[in-house]
Design a protein that fits this description.
mainly beta; 77 residues; three-stranded antiparallel β-sheet; 57% strand
Length: 77
């Protein structure tokens, strides 16, 4: 199967920093107030719903989940 790619942009409109958790790798990034972060993912096409990025928001955090076989990079804009 061919690879697929996804990109999302996270924007912190809050007055305090957000923790951005990248799972299942256990990486943590800090997103400062009024800043943006881009998350790019590439990996094998799978069977829904396990073939896409999943984003979960919390009170002071955002968690981004990759899918099996994917490689995900995060960068501040």
């Amino acid at each position: 199967m061919a690879d697929q790619t996804f990109s999302i942009r996270l924007r912190n409109a809050r007055k305090s920093a957000l923790n951005v958790y990248l799972e299942p790798w256990g990486e943590i990034y800090k997103l400062s107030p009024n800043k943006q972060m881009q998350v790019d993912a590439e990996g094998p096409t799978g069977v829904a719903p396990n073939n896409m990025l999943e984003v979960e928001s919390g009170e002071d955090s955002v968690t981004v989940w990759g899918w099996g076989g994917s490689a995900v990079t995060v960068r501040e804009l």
